[in-house]
Write a structure and sequence with these properties.
With about 290 residues, the protein is α/β, with parallel strands linked by helices. About 50% of the residues lie in helices and about 15% in strands. It contains 14 helices and eight strands. Strands 1-2-3-4-5-6-7-8 form an eight-stranded parallel beta barrel, surrounded by eight helices.
Length: about 290
C-alpha cells in the first residue's frame, strides 16, 4: 500500500494551540473522575508490565501468578487487562495464567528500538503468538519514518499484521517522545492505523521522553478522525512513566473527552504500567496497598 498518498485524506492533525485548549478543558473536568468507579476502570485497563533485564522464568512466574490471584484478594476490583512480557517469557506466563482467562501481551519486533531485520521481526512475532501471546506490541521503524520513509514503515506493520492474523490484537508503538512534533505524531498514527493497528500506543517506556498528555491528545484526535473517515475504531494505549492515579486519570479523561464513553473499555483503552497497580488499588480500597 502507498501510505504516503493516503495521508492527505486525514489532514495534518491538531495544532499546538488546539492541544493547549483541549488539555485546559480536560483539566477542568478531571476532578469529577476522582472516584472509585473510574479508578476501577483504569485498573481494569492496565497491561501489567515486566520488561526488565533482570526478568527470569521464576520471576515472571511469580509476577503473573500474583496477577492471576488478585480476584481472590480483591473480588470487587476488575482484574488487569493483560500481563505484558518479553517474547521469551510468553510460554512461562501462559503456564502461570492457566485457565484464568487473562490475556498475555508480548512486546515483539525488535523491541524497543525496532532496529533489526524485518524477517527477524516477523519470526519473533510469529513465535510469540505460537507460544501463546494474545496481543503483541511492536515499535515502528522510527528512524525510517523520520527520514520520510512512510511506505516502508507502513508496509512493515502491514506485514506483521498479516503474519499474526486478525485474531491477535496488534498494538503499534509510535515512541511519541522521539517524534516530538504534533504533525509527526499525527502522521505516524494515521499510517499505523491504516496498516492494521488495533491500538496505537505512545511509548516503549525506554526512551528519554515517554508518554505525554500532548501526544495523547494528538493520537486520540487522529483516532477520532480515522474512525469518522473509515468507520474503524482503533484503541489508544498510554504507556511510559505512568505511575500514579493522577497520571491514569489524566489519560482516561483525555480519552473520554476526545473519543467518548464508548472508548473507555479494555477493548479500546489501555494503560501500560508496572508500578501503577499498587497506587490504583490503594485509591480504590482507601488505604496503602503493596500487592504487586
Amino acid at each position: 500500500m502507498e501510505y504516503s498518498s493516503n495521508l492527505k485524506k486525514f489532514g495534518t492533525g491538531v495544532s499546538s494551540a488546539e492541544i493547549e485548549e483541549i488539555l485546559a478543558a480536560v483539566r477542568r473536568v478531571l476532578p469529577k473522575n476522582r472516584n472509585k468507579k473510574v479508578y476501577k476502570r483504569c485498573f481494569g485497563a492496565i497491561d501489567l508490565t515486566s520488561l526488565n533485564s533482570t526478568d527470569s522464568k521464576d520471576r515472571i512466574d511469580r509476577f503473573v501468578t500474583r496477577a492471576v490471584e488478585l480476584p481472590d484478594r480483591y473480588p470487587d476490583v476488575p482484574n488487569v487487562a493483560s500481563v505484558c512480557v518479553y517474547p521469551v517469557f510468553v510460554e512461562t506466563a501462559g503456564m502461570a495464567i492457566g485457565d484464568s482467562g487473562m490475556s498475555i501481551t508480548s512486546v515483539c519486533g525488535g523491541f524497543p528500538s525496532s532496529q533489526t531485520y524485518l524477517e527477524v521481526k516477523m519470526l519473533e512475532t510469529a513465535m510469540a503468538v505460537e507460544n501463546g501471546a494474545d496481543e503483541v506490541d511492536v515499535v515502528i521503524s522510527i528512524g525510517e519514518f523520520l527520514n520520510g520513509e512512510y511506505d516502508l514503515m507502513g508496509n512493515e506493520i502491514e506485514m506483521l499484521r498479516n503474519e499474526i492474523g486478525d485474531d491477535i490484537v496488534l498494538k503499534v508503538i509510535l515512541e511519541s517522545g522521539i517524534l516530538a512534533s504534533p504533525e509527526a505524531i499525527h502522521r505516524a498514527s494515521v499510517i499505523a492505523m491504516s496498516a492494521g493497528a488495533d491500538f496505537i500506543k505512545t511509548s516503549t517506556g525506554k526512551a528519554a521522553v515517554a508518554a505525554t498528555p500532548e501526544a495523547a491528545v494528538v493520537m486520540c484526535r487522529a483516532i477520532r478522525t480515522f474512525a469518522e473517515k473509515t468507520g474503524r475504531q482503533v484503541g489508544f494505549k498510554a504507556a511510559g512513566g505512568i505511575s500514579t492515579e493522577e497520571d491514569a486519570l489524566l489519560y482516561y479523561t483525555i480519552t473520554e473527552q476526545i473519543l467518548g464513553e464508548e472508548w473507555l473499555t479494555p477493548e479500546r483503552f489501555r494503560i501500560g504500567a508496572s508500578g501503577l497497580g499498587n497506587r490504583l488499588l490503594s485509591a480504590i480500597v482507601g488505604e496503602s496497598v503493596v500487592y504487586f
